[in-house]
Structures are given as structure tokens and as C-alpha cells.
Amino acid sequence: MNVSDSERVSTLLESEGFEITADESSADIVLLNTCSVREKAEHKLYTRVGQIKPGGRGDKIVGVMGCVAQLEGETLFEKDRGIDFVVGTRAVGRVHKAIRQAVSGNAKVIDLKDREDDYDWTVADKSRHSPYVAFLPIIEGCNKFCTYCIVPFSRGREKSLPASEIVRQVLELRRTGVKEVHLIGQNVNSYRPGTESGLEEFRGATPFSRLLRAVAATGIERIKFTTSFPRDFHPDIVDALDEYENLCNWVHLPVQSGSDRILRAMRRGHTVESYMQRIERIRRSPREIAITTDIIVGFPGETDEDFRGTKELVRDCGYDAAYIFKYSPRPGTPAAELEDDVSDETKKTRFLELEEIQKENLARSLSNAVGKVYNVLAEKTSERDGGHLSGHTSCHKVVNFPGNGAAPGEICRVKITEAKSNTLFGERV
Ligand code: SAH
Ligand code: SF4
């Protein structure tokens, strides 16, 4: 979501006559996009500001956007760090105005107000992280209020974008040569557009599965979507994947914990059993669907027994990837009121233990791929070997292979010949 915000901000700034540079030293204005999901991410902001303006001094104009901007607001101006303007998560459509005020000498420019009704969600081709892959927000914010999480506070309430607008953008992206769209949101399957959503002609048990079918019907080569919220993961989503080849073989379904007691304390709205039912439905698909997850270790009160449940679940699910995080108390969330009673050391040990199990899962998932043929979207020339192309499968695994005349942007049939740590290697067939 942050990458997507940055892409839209750079689109806006270019259209307002600013020039974007990759060379920080030549920049007059530096705009830092920030994350506050864990404490460590938040600290990075202050480190970066200190590098750009040591001791709060220097010629550059420095602005902060993103979740830290939204949450910290005015306090970012304290301690004379050298921050000149602050733009909240829903004010990104007015960042050019904040910059102009700062440039004309106004101090402490701040805009934390709401998104304008006519906010433009499009990204110019040149501002996209890849010419062939596009991120498309379909829902912003979050209403779930998991007890550990800051996102509902930093990103506000859930708001779905009109389906007709999403479909229009996908058609436009397809026309300009984009091969893969990622429908993104904190919880994409909570998608709920207003009435007259433009989805009436599509089947589906939920607005999200109707949207998937509508986007699939555009004929764009590939559609991925992330993140899915387990409680609301309707089996019809898998039905839609089974029906449309261009919906990709990948579901990101964060479990957070394998203990019902902890899941309840996290207020996730799912149990181990209800989660496993979703996994089983995905596994029953005739397609080989990759499943990835997020896990928090060391939530307040997590015992060895709770953690054993998580290890068991991670083994049972055999995830293709798992993003593991040490619990980090976020001021203002309900969990931050609880004693952070799992020591750092225990958090670290649990993290490493889980990482070890996941390494085995990954090795199994990668070696299963050897000998099979996949469609790989060549996204770039591989950094390590100039002659090789690198891209993703439909199930979101990275594959490197000799291009033999193929160019980035092509979807190639590749037979996997070897699996190494995180990457697959193959040959075109
Ligand atoms: N909406 C997604 C998650 C978005 S946040 C979902 O509900 O699954 C991305 C991940 O960051 C979460 O899945 C969680 O694993 C992690 N995370 C969020 N808050 C955290 C905290 N306070 N400490 C540690 N990890 C956290
Ligand atoms: Fe955070 Fe829960 Fe919302 Fe995900 S669903 S963003 S974890 S509050």
C-alpha cells in the first residue's frame, strides 16, 4: 500500500511540474513515506531525517507522509529535527499544495484531513515500480481493530473504490501493456462498494468474488490480490479462481497465531479450526494454489503451549512463504494496555524456531516445483546474471531463466530445473 501511495504521489508531483530524482543529493525536496506497523519501522524515520538534515539543519525541504505522519502529526515538528511539512495518509492528493507552502517559507505545514471526493487513484506509467505489474487499491482503511494493530488508526475506516472505476483502470492498464494487476487493500475480501456498484452482471456470493470475476472478464493476463482476511474468506473466492485462468494461484491469508486463546486476545475473529477449513478449501482446488501468511510471535501472554500450536499450524499448512514478526506494542491499541510479558529473548527464540520450520516448508515447496512447467512473467533482467530474465509465476514464486530472445514483459513457459534457497531456476520450453 505504501509503494502504491508513493507511485500516486510521484504521478501527482510530476503532473504538477516537479521533477522526480533517484539521486537524493541533488534533490531540493525529500518526501519520506512511513510505516508505523511496528516500532522499528517508525524509528527509521528519525534516522533518515537525521541523515538528510544532520542536527535538523540543511537546505533541503523535508516532508513526511504515510502512517507515522498521520499518527504523530504536529509532534513531528518538535525537537527541531528539520521536518518542514507533514501530510497524512488520506491527504496525499494535496501533497503538492503542502510542498508549495513549505517552499514559500511557511513553517510546520500540516494536512491530516480527509481524502477529496475526486481523488485520482491513477498512476502514470513512468511512476510505476514495474512497467508490467501494477498495484491497484480496491479498498482502503480497516474496520477490524485487531487488538495489536495500528492500521485502523493510521489508515481510517474501510472505504471501497467503485467497481466500475477499478474495471476501467484494469482495461486501461491492459491497453498500455501491463500484464499483471495486484488488487490491494488491508483486507481485499472485505470489499463492499455502494449500491449500483457496476457488479450486478457478475455472479458471486460476496462483492469481492463478484469483483474478481469482473476483473477477470477484462482479459488482463494476470490478477493477484492481497491481503485476504481469514474470517471473511468465503469459499466462493476459490470457486472464482477455479473458473478463471487469469486469477492467479496465490492466496495470502495471515493467520497470526496457532492458538485459539491468543487469536481471541488478538480479536481476529477466526479460530484455528475455521482457518484450517479455509486452507482445506484452497487445497481442494484442482489448481496448485500457493498459500502465504503473516505470524506474530510473543503476543502478550503467549505461553510455550500457545507457541506449540503456532508451530504445529505452520507445519500443517506447509506455507509457501510466511512473514514472521515479533510482537511490537503500538501505543493507542488495546494490546498495548497489556503487559508486554514475553521477553525479547523468547520472542527471538520463537521467531528463529518458526523461521526454521518455514525454511523446511519453503524447501519442500520449491523442490516440488522442480520438473514442472510454469508461466513466468519476465519482469526484469536478473541482477546476478545479465543474460537471465527474472520474474514471477502465477503462484508468486521468483524464477530466473536464460531469456533466449525473450524480453521483459513476456510471459514465458519455463521448466524448472533447480531450486536454490529462495529462487527457482529454469529453461524456456
Ligand atoms: N490486514 C492484514 C495485515 C496488515 S499489517 C491482516 O489482517 O492480515 C501486516 C502484518 O503486520 C500483520 O499481518 C501482522 O502480522 C503484522 N503486525 C501488525 N501489527 C503488529 C504489531 N503490533 N507487532 C508485530 N507485528 C504486527
Ligand atoms: Fe490490522 Fe487486523 Fe486490520 Fe489487518 S485486519 S490491518 S491486522 S486491524
N-to-C SSE string, H for helix and E for strand? HEHEHEHEEEHEHEHEHEHHEHEHEEEEE
Q: Which shape, going by the Cα principal axes?
A: globular
CATH topology of the domain at 2-111: Rossmann fold
Distinct helical segment count: 12
Identify the CATH homologous superfamily of the domain at 2-111.
Methylthiotransferase, N-terminal domain
| CATH architecture descriptor text of the domain at 2-111 | 3-Layer(aba) Sandwich
Strand content: 15-25%
Query: Level of helix content?
Result: 25-40%
Overall strand count: 17
Give the distinct bound molecules.
S-adenosyl-L-homocysteine, iron/sulfur cluster
How is the biggest beta sheet arranged? 5 strands, mixed, barrel
What can you tell me about this protein's structure?
- This protein has twelve helices and 17 strands.
- It is of the alpha/beta class and 429 residues long.
- Strand 1, helix 2 and strand 2 form a beta-alpha-beta unit.
- The relative contact order is 0.08.
- Bound molecules: S-adenosyl-L-homocysteine and iron/sulfur cluster (SF4).
Short account of what is shown:
The chain has 429 residues and is α/β, with parallel strands linked by helices.
List the helices and strands and how they pair.
Elements: H1 2-15, E1 29-34, H2 39-52, E2 61-66, H3 67-72, E3 85-87, H4 95-103, E4 109-111, E5 133-137, E6 139-140, H5 151-155, E7 159-160, H6 163-175, E8 180-184, H7 207-216, E9 222-226, H8 235-243, E10 250-252, H9 260-266, H10 272-283, E11 290-297, H11 304-317, E12 321-326, H12 344-369, E13 373-381, E14 388-393, E15 398-402, E16 411-420, E17 423-428
Parallel strand pairs: 1-2, 2-3, 3-4, 5-8, 8-9, 10-11, 11-12, 15-17
Antiparallel strand pairs: 6-7, 13-14, 13-16, 14-15, 16-17
Helix pairs in contact: 7-8, 11-12
The structure holds S-adenosyl-L-homocysteine and iron/sulfur cluster.
